[in-house]
Amino acid sequence: MSRIRSAGTKPEVLLKKALWNSGVRYRRPKKPLFGKPDLSFKKYKLVIFVDGSFWHGYDWNKSQNNIKSNREFWIAKIERNMQRDEEVNAFYKSKGWKVIRFWDFEVKNEIGACLRKILGFME
Questions:
Q1: What is the total count of domains within the chain?
Q2: Cα(16)–Cα(115) distance, rounded to whole angstroms?
Q3: For residue 69, is pLDDT > 80?
Q4: Is there a domain that residue 112 lies in?
Q5: What does the alpha-carbon distance between residue 93 and residue 98 come to, in Å, rounded to a whole number?
Q6: What are phi and psi of 34, to 5 degrees?
Q7: Sequence-ordered alpha helix ranges (H) in 22-103
Q8: The most confident of 9-13, 24-28, 111-115, by mean pLDDT
Q9: How many CB atoms lie within 10 A of CB 70?
Q10: Is residue 1 part of a domain?
């Protein structure tokens, strides 16, 4: 697990490059924001997360049956990640911010749709 990165993942880098190439400029915050969003835009009150499908429980009802080893640990861990995601969403919404979450495979396969969604929130 030491090789699993929480920042700088391929889908995240792909999204950042696509945003930069489309003319959207961003900076990394010096002080980490709550929930550690992958991208944040203070001007638009917008935070963006790129979630890994395994780590954040994509299609969880089916996926949890595929876990074969150390089931108790992984199921508890992933369910806690899902709960934390909801807490982070609620925090930002209570502050008047918009939250966009993408699955890693959405960014890889449908980068254009992701860009349009982000640009739509910025208008």
A1: 1
A2: 10
A3: yes
A4: yes
A5: 6
A6: -60, 130
A7: 60-63, 71-94
A8: 111-115
A9: 9
A10: no
Q: How far apart are alpha carbons 58 and 60 in whole angstroms?
A: 5
Residue 37 has which token pair?
A: 């969003």
**Any domain includes 5:** no
pTM over 0.70: yes
Report how far residue 9's alpha carbon sits from residue 70's, in angstroms, rounded to the nearest whole number: 25
Are 90 and 47 in contact, with CB atoms under 8 Å apart?
Answer: no
Dihedral over Cα of 110, 40, 100, 59: its sign: positive
3 found inside a domain: no
Name all contacts of 110-117 with Cβ < 8 Å and 24+ positions apart: 111/14, 111/15, 111/18, 114/15, 114/18, 115/18, 115/19, 115/22
Residue 20 tokens read as 């930069």
Q: Is the pLDDT of residue 2 over 80?
A: no
Residue type, 44: Y
The CATH number assigned to the domain holding 110 equals 3.40.960.10
Q: What range defines the domain where residue 83 resides? A: 10-27+35-122
Q: For the chain, what percent of residues have pLDDT higher than 90? A: 62
Provide the token pair at 123.
């208008």
Q: What is the pLDDT of residue 123?
A: 78
